[in-house]
Amino acid sequence: MTEPIVTFQDVHKSFGDVEVLKGINLDIKPAEKVAVIGPSGSGKTTIIRMLMTLEKPTSGDIIVDGKNLWKMDKNGQLVDANEKHLREVRGDIGMVFQHFNLFPHMTILENCMTAPIHVKKENKQTAKQHSIQMLEKVGLGDKLDNYPSQLSGGQKQRVAMARALVMRPKVMLFDEVTSALDPELVGEVLEVIRDIAKEGEMAMILVTHEMDFALDVADKVLFLDEGVIAEQGTASEVIEHSSNERLQSFLKRFRA
Amino acid sequence: MDNWSWEIFFDAFPVVLEGLGITVGLTLACYLFSLIFGFVWTFLRRVPFKPLNWIVTWVMEFIRSTPPLVQLFFIYFAWPMVPVVGMTLSPFTSAVLGLGLHFSTYIGEVYRSGIEGVDKGQWEASQALNLSTRQKWLKIILPQAIPPTIPMLGNYLIIMFKEVPLASTIGVVGILHMANSYGAQYWAYLEPLTIVAILFLVLSYPSAILISKLEKRMNRRFDKKETLNSSKGATT
Asked: Which segments constitute the ABC transporter domain (chain A) (predicted)?
């Protein structure tokens, strides 16, 4: 039994008076692909944002590769993590956003090279080489010197993936990465994700509304409802054979 | 025009011109001071400590709502009489302090609008890539926050240039002061003050044009790259 790469232990999250997540327990194995589905407002995105350290859990622990993400040891006591500790643990995680968030003042290549150079301290040549490889892999080898504003949504999202991949994270998070795209551009992005998933080494958590895609790529599907994991299992168990009523009515809306 | 004399005009011109170095120098000194102090305001307002933010906001509001002339008089005439911290300052230093401080509150607002204009997603993406706080600011946020503020900062330079004559009231010997003393000496105000107006016009009008050009260029920034590259892209 391999150690999980990510563990959530009774994680709660409130925004003001509203409790969005009401006790999440979750183990993700290295290289496991997990799809998180559920109605909007169910807290799907909040789960991965906490893992990316963009939101702080109200209570509970998140363990990444054996290290507590939000807490650190200080003279034998667990205290809130400081930025230095967060940076150490965060290095294992990468994220792709719904709205791409490319850096508009940099070319595609520079978008990919910045973090390897400044965070991983790679020399410029190596960083460039890796970035070009990664951009070719997502099919944008001919756009290196273009600026984000010149690309279509699908292309932007592929750049965003290359930019995250070039950091070689152990866990990659996808936050509704096709939701902001025109329908005809969704396919090219899903295809790249599928390719990445096939390579296998990296754990992936996908928050998505693409049910067929989730069924195809994910080893495990979580159905999140009203702040708890209401159903989990293999894709076919959850999506095709679950008896959970709310899940059924949720799925029905997608199948219609 | 009986009263206009070209003789006086040409006689007064070099005298008034002598003050130009001081006027321009004072403008630049005030501007530099306000650029730096504007940064201090912006920084203090971002410190995650609410009471400090309130105090800073209130002080800025106070400085902005009192006339610069009153501030100048206070620093030059009243400050030396304040116990313990009071001290006598030269007219030039008082003017740099007074006008610089006054305008720094506006400059601070310009910085703030620049920083707030950067999309929240840019911060999140920088964090997801694990950039340090320093790298976030230097590589991602400031390169996007600064360019849109440049035209506004340029406008403030011109506005300050036109406010600098206020300093003549505390005895800074700029062009207005020179024109005034020439007028007092020869009882001829028309020509020297006309020269002052011309000098201001000659300096601020071209600057204003330059800034509006700059503004247009900033607005076109990303489009330009687009046209440049799409022509290149067509061949691939």
From this structure: 6-251
- CATH of A6-92+171-255 given 3.40.50.620, 3.40.50.300, 1.10.1740.10, 3.30.300.30: 3.40.50.300
From the centroid of its chain, how far is CA A251? Answer: 22
Measured between beta carbons, which residues in chain B are less than 8 angstroms from residue A53?
127
Q: What residues 63-102 of chain A have any CB closer than 8 A to a CB of chain B? A: 83, 87, 90-91, 93-95, 97, 99-102
B119 close contact with A: CB closer than 8 A: yes
Give long-range contacts, CB 8 A cutoff, 24+ apart: B206-214.
B207/B154, B207/B157, B207/B158, B207/B161, B208/B158, B210/B154, B211/B151, B211/B154, B211/B155, B211/B158, B212/B151, B214/B150, B214/B151, B214/B154
A118 and B CB contact within 8 Å: yes
Mean pLDDT (whole number) for A33-47? 91
Determine the pLDDT at residue A2.
Answer: 81
Task: State pLDDT tens for residues B79-129.
Answer: 999 988 888 999 999 999 999 999 999 999 999 999 999 999 999 999 999
Q: Please identify, in words, the CATH class of the domain defined by B24-172.
A: mainly alpha
Percent of chain A with pLDDT over 70: 99
Predicted TM-score (pTM) of this structure: 0.84
ipTM computed for the complex = 0.92
Grade residue A200 by pLDDT with cuts at 50, 70 and 90: confident
